[in-house]
Request: fold
Amino acid sequence: MGQCMAGLVNKLVANNELSDEELTELLKYRNKETTEYLFEQAMVAKQKYYGDSVYIRGTIELTNYCKNECFYCGLKRDNIFIPRYRLDEEDVMKFADYGYERGVRTFSIMGGDDYNFTQERITGIIHMLTNKYPDVAIELSLGQRDEATYRAWFDAGATRYVLCHETADDNHFKKLHPAEMSLLRRKQCLWELKDIGYQVGTGFMVGVPFQMINHVVDDLKFIKQLEPQIVRISPFVPSEHTIFAKERSGNGDMTMYLMAIIRLMLPRVIITADQTLENVMADGRKKAISASANEVLASISTEDVREYYYVYNKRINRKNTAGDEIERMRLKITESGSMIGNDKGDYNYPPEEHNYKRKYEKKYSFM
Reply:
């Protein structure tokens, strides 16, 4: 039996932040008693703004091409062992029709950094979706682009953009990415997205190679400073044909522990229960809801597309990606004791704080 660090949790509840030393202590000495109390307080914070609601977002996996060579990712440019694909506009609309008929009101278009999908082409896809379905929200997760491209997509109707920073420590970033990639540029992209007016999402991997507690503390501090509307953290899952293929997966329990900490740091944030949790623990997404996660992603693409998108990672459990993902997510939400949120393409922020066109001051002092 461990000693509950209730004092630190209560301070986090009251102030929405802790010092570096306090965060280190909370992470280093994690135990059952502290975890239970932390989850309890995180759920109180979540319910204040979202009640029992958990939202389902429909994902369309646009492409598995990528120009980058990130060391941990099976979609990396030089991986010759996976078949590549790109959806066309007809495919995108077919999948959107399928999702809309089943109640999805947020389309999340994701893919590698594939510059075959130019600014103009993505703008056209956004227009096609919003013209047919004016009541949906469009979320993009298409990697690093220049500010003009981000602005063009926002003006076309996209309202959300997710770009995970992966690690907030520059030396750690360099151990996970090739020299041509820059953490400075990644962070600048996130501030640019905020400045444009997007609802911004970021996140990091838990248990990725070379990660230390001080790196996680830096991640939490960066998230607190950025104040994103969406946070997506997930356990590291090793991919075949990468230099980290033989490494251990990240810890699902620690991932949920961090979700609860982030909830208390940013009570109004949307926290995603990521699919990779089910790779490292049974019913991972359902358990994450008890740690205050309030969003799940459900692929609305056909199974052949999902297979090509996940083919680089043989550790993905096929039973977690096959069949009707929307129905499976609905079941997980109700089994967790929560209810399916009435997603109208917006977040449940108080009206006076719900202004996504606010201009954020660009802050580069931390870099």
About this structure: The chain has 14 helices and eleven strands. The radius of gyration is 19 Å. Residues 32-50 form the longest helix (19 residues). Residues 51-344 form a domain with the TIM Barrel fold (CATH 3.20.20.70).
